Amino acid sequence: MEAGTATARPQIIAHEVDRPRRGWVSWLTTTDHKKIGILYLLTVLVFFVIGGVEALLMRIQLGVPENTFLTPEKYNEIFTLHGTTMVFLVIVPVWAGFANYFLPLMIGARDVAFPRLNAWSYWMFLFGGLALYGSLFFTPPEAGWFSYVPLSLKEYTPSNGQEAWIYMVHLTGLSSILGAINFIATIHNMRAPGMGWGRMPLFVWTILIYAYLIILALTSLAATVTMLLLDRNFGTNFFDPSEGGSALLWQHLFWFFGHPEVYILVLPAFGVFSEILPVFARKPIFGYKAIAAATAGIAFLGMLVWAHHMFATPMSTVVLAFFMLSSFLIAVPTGVKIFNWVATLWRGTVEFRVPLLFCVGGIGTFLMGGITGIFLAVFPVDWQLTDTYFVVAHFHYTAFGASAFAMVAALYYWFPKMTGRLMSEGLGKISFWLFLVGFHLTFLIQHSAGLDGMPRRIYEYAESAGWSEMNLISSIGAFVLALSILLTIINVVRSLKRGPIAGPDPWKANTLEWFTTSPPPENNFDVVPRVRSVEPMKDIRRQIERQTGVPQRFEAGKPMVNA
Amino acid sequence: MLLGALVLAPAASAGWFLPESAGAPNADAIRTLYILIALLGLVIFIGVEGLMIYSLFKFRARKGRVAAQIHGNTQLEIGWTVGAAAILIFLTVFTFLLLDDIKNPAVSQIDAEGNPVAASATFAALDQPAPPEGSEAMTIKVVGEQYAWSYFYPTEEGETRVFAYNDMYVPVGMTIILDVQAKDVAHSWWIPPLGGKADAIPGYTNKTWFQIPLDALEEGQDRVIYEGQCAELCGRNHADMLARVIGLPYDDWVAWRDEKAQEIKAAQEEAAAQRERIQASEGGE
Q1: Chains A, B: CB contacts under 8 A, how many?
Q2: Nearest of A93, A43, A400 to residue A218 by alpha carbon
Q3: pLDDT at residue A1 in the model
Q4: CB-CB under 8 Å, B65 with A343
Q5: Partner residue facing B16 (CB), from A149, A448, A457
Q6: Chain B 153-172, CB below 8 Å of chain A: which residues?
Q7: If one looks up domain B137-276 in CATH, what number appears?
Q8: Torsions phi, psi of A455, nearest 5?
Q9: In 10 A of CB A310, how many CB atoms?
Q10: Would you kindly state where each structural domain of chain A is located, as residue ranges?
Q11: pLDDT reported for residue A559
């Protein structure tokens, strides 16, 4: 460089620009957060269908007493695969999928912080899932998604299905951890000008907390399953009581991951509720700061409640009491959120669109799961209820009630942004009602089965036990639920080609993803607007109205789009 | 109406709404606690769901309506945070009031000879339940293994140890303390009408207790039977790991125990004799 020239400035010189790739190769090589998001969502859909079919197989088996549809071995394999699939391959990655697509858009960024790492995360997730399902060609794991020792040790579960399970946990865990680092770096560094912490969309808040929880919980799980791998194959005996190990150690370590995991599944669902409700009530979210703070509060307390999964194990009263109280405390920030959502509807103008229906259906269902959670937090009551169908009902009310309802709400809400086309409202509404009725038909009665003494994970029961009607009702409900999901899948496929054109902002929504075209170009935004509030799109619409005189505001009672 | 049903539901139809009881006093106390939480939960449920559904329909979009642009209300936020906390504090206090009845074994209703004793208060014990002092109680070791339960009865010096599988015979009225253990994988001991679960974890001894009240035996009955099954996944035949507790009048129970002891002694002697014969024949060759 010659002396005396102007001060050196960083320069980017493009010698050669890669030609944009097309066709299926572009999906294999992509580092675009939107394409990766769609890959996540499609993969999740496949695993969701597989996990759902597994649930149906179990419900067929339990539909009548003393059924011989499945052998005990097959039944154990199927509930292990169902739980593992729904937790690790559906609900955790579904939020990674939605966050991948929408987080950069919502904060006005052009991609995530580390696009290649992002692609790697996806591929590890996919191969983790394939590793688990590869075991179908040998022997699938059968010790449950929680793989309690000593049952999961080589002596009692000799098949390599358990190794497939461990391998899956490692791959998807690493995928989630790297994904979480990516989200955290993106959120901390790449927000649009003016978007301070107090103006960040609530979905982004929940993804931020979700990401921190993943780093705390999944790293712990990785160590835990490594210990299991060593015990099974290298004689370390961490968990073998006859060799000085402890069978309870696994339970503590597993649930130290397992309970934060519950909030990993559910916090982003809360974020979806907090995004969609204000849009369809045409009203700002009630108590933005309280909701964001409650999210952090739930995550913090969620790290301190793990032993409430183990109330029936030998524990001193002090420990029991501590975990009862910490579990109670979680109800407070959770309650705050629910009150805030209801207050958001209050004095709004509520548009009964499919995303809103799934949100309120989800909140109503989740509330019931929250209330049954209080029963389970009281440890003497838990001694009666734990490991029964009451618990199965409880966590489906929370995990399915919040996460699955929110998942479908998010699909209907964001589909127009991802594809440029709206999904059918009519089909969506039918799907919603079947979803709601099917869900409660399946799971409400399971509380009764549990109260009546039906334990979990049994492949059969005697007619004399008196659980036949309850189980038949539950099994019928499961098929109604399956039909609803089938309708939504049909809706997706149909709307891809035939849905009405959405335009950039069909809902007149609040956040920045609606500022760009649908679907967005590869760079997302040519110009990133300055953010002045939690609802930047509302500000922008107002500005356009002022400058052009064309009304941009939403009018209650008028059809939102030409759908 | 639901409220009434919850409170008044007779024991016979308890299965649909309430945990099982009508067996041991600890199960009854758990049920009381359950009813209290159910009532509180019901109020919260009706309140919140009602408010949500009301807002949905009352404030649904109509032509000309404008949504109120409210961002929050700090007083309201503080109010419901404190309210939620207050309910939970109340629940905590109530739980600890009932805890003694659930966790600590009650005084036996019979003495060492099987005669009824006057009812008296329960005695508090710390952490691990122990029989109240001065009261007659029997400690039975319960061992879970794939896929059966075995029970070891207390024994005195020189006597044959009585044990049984799957059916546990106990005298009604007596407080029974259980030392729950596992031989192979984790299991969970549970007879719903006799109280909560106790996980059987290899390497640990878990404690629980129950007592079949004297009046559980109705006129003309010679036994009362409670059924349950393993409640922790323990392998492929987890569903078939059944257990029963059979309550007998004290004298019948003593007769059962003595007969069992005789059987076991005879079997042991037979086995010993067989061993000797085998040894003798091996030595002869």
Answers
A1: 271
A2: A93
A3: 43
A4: no
A5: A448
A6: none
A7: 2.60.40.420
A8: -75, 165
A9: 21
A10: 31-548
A11: 61
Mean pLDDT by 10 residues, chain A (563 residues): 54 65 86 96 98 98 96 97 97 97 96 96 97 95 96 94 97 97 97 96 98 96 97 94 92 96 97 97 95 96 96 93 95 95 94 96 97 95 96 96 96 97 96 98 96 95 94 97 98 95 92 95 91 94 89 69 47
Active-site residue set of A: 82, 111, 145, 175-176, 259, 261, 263, 274, 308-309, 334, 337, 456
Instruction: Pick B135 or A243 by higher pLDDT.
Output: A243
Tell the residue number behind the tokens 């189980």, with chain if given. A471
Looking at chain B, the domain(s) classified CATH 1.10.287 span: 2-60+72-103
Shortest Cα–Cα distance, B166 to chain A (Å): 17
Contact at CB, A388 and B52, closer than 8 angstroms: no
Q: For residue range B4-29, list pLDDT tens digits in order.
A: 444 444 444 456 888 887 778 888 88
What length does chain B have? 285
pLDDT on residue B187: 97
In angstroms, the CA B194 to CA B243 distance is 12
483-542 in A: which are within 8 Å (CB) of B?
none
Q: Which of residues 247-276 of B touch A (CB under 8 A)?
A: none
* A347/B59 touch (CB, cutoff 8 Å), yes or no: yes
Q: Which fold has domain B2-60+72-103?
A: Helix Hairpins (1.10.287)
- pLDDT above 90 coverage of chain B, percent: 58
Q: Which CATH architecture has domain A31-548?
A: Up-down Bundle (1.20)
pTM over 0.90: yes
In angstroms, the CA A97 to CA B103 distance is: 47
Phi, psi of B203 (to 5 degrees): 95, -10
Interchain contact, B59 vs A349, CB within 8 Å: yes
3-state helix/strand/coil string of A63-93: HCCCCCCCCHHHHHHHHHHHHHHHHHHHHHH
DSSP letters along A496-554, please? HHHSPB--S-TT--SSGGGGS-SSPPTTS-SSPPPP-SS-HHHHHHHHHHHHH----S-
What pLDDT score was predicted for residue B12?
Answer: 40
Closest-CA distance of chain B to residue A556, Å: 5
